[in-house]
């Protein structure tokens, strides 16, 4: 188990589990929380893991 195996959440479109290995962008929102955009390995699209 490496940090890349950490599950961020699921794709909102297909419910595939997305791990840290798929992160494209990490950002901090106006409330100081970290948000993540990642590539879904199923959809081949950029999604926000839920
Ligand atoms: Zn997906």
Describe this structure in words.
The chain has 50 residues and is an all-beta fold. It has one domain. Helices cover 0% and strands 46% of the residues. The protein is built from no helices and 5 strands. The strands form 2 sheets. The chain has a 3-stranded antiparallel beta sheet, with no helix packed on it. It starts with 6 loop residues before the first strand and ends with a strand. The model has no long low-confidence stretch (mean pLDDT 93). The protein binds zinc ion.
Q: Can I get a quick summary?
A:
The termini are far apart. The protein is globular.
What keywords describe this structure?
three-stranded antiparallel sheet; 50 residues; 0% helix; mainly beta; 5 strands; single chain; binds zinc ion; two-stranded antiparallel sheet
Helices and strands in order:
Layout: E1 7-10, E2 17-19, E3 23-28, E4 34-40, E5 45-47
Antiparallel strand pairs: 1-2, 3-4, 4-5
Structural class, please?
Answer: mainly beta
Spell out the helices and strands N to C. EEEEE
The portion of residues forming beta strands comes to over 45%
Number of strands: 5
Shape field: globular
Span from first to last CA?
22 Å
């Amino acid at each position: 188990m490496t940090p890349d195996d950490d599950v961020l959440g699921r794709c909102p479109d297909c419910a595939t589990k997305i791990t840290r290995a798929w992160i494209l962008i990490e950002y901090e929102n106006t409330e100081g929380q970290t948000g993540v955009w990642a590539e879904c390995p199923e959809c081949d699209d950029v999604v926000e893991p839920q």
